[in-house]
Amino acid sequence: MAKGAYIALIAHDQKKDDMAAFARRNEALLRPFSIVATGTTGGRVLEACPSLDVIRLKSGPLGGDQQIGALIATGEVSMLIFLVDPLSALPHDVDVKALTRLATVYDIPMALNTATAEILVRTLTATDTQN
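Above: the chain sequence. Below: its structure as tokens.
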């Protein structure tokens, strides 16, 4: 992963516990990287892993998704982990679709569940140590 690039973390309400648990399991792998997260998700990650470098933006529905989208568009995000809850109706679903579309357009690795997130973090951190 390029220097100065962020790993972006977002989780829907029903997935915030999963994100905190993911961060705890992978704290050592995430520690060398700067993380940008939507507000509540970032707070939960910091509670679980105070040693991580986490920049908290606004909450998703209040503009945090768009803030991360802007960082993707400017090349500042190298990986997106967005734990989605497919079983809950989301009033800001258009924001979610826009964010995943940007990740696809800018061809950055994106995980929408913890299984894929585990693979991405292990792969990117292994690649980073080889460069």
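The first strand starts at residue 6 and ends at 11.
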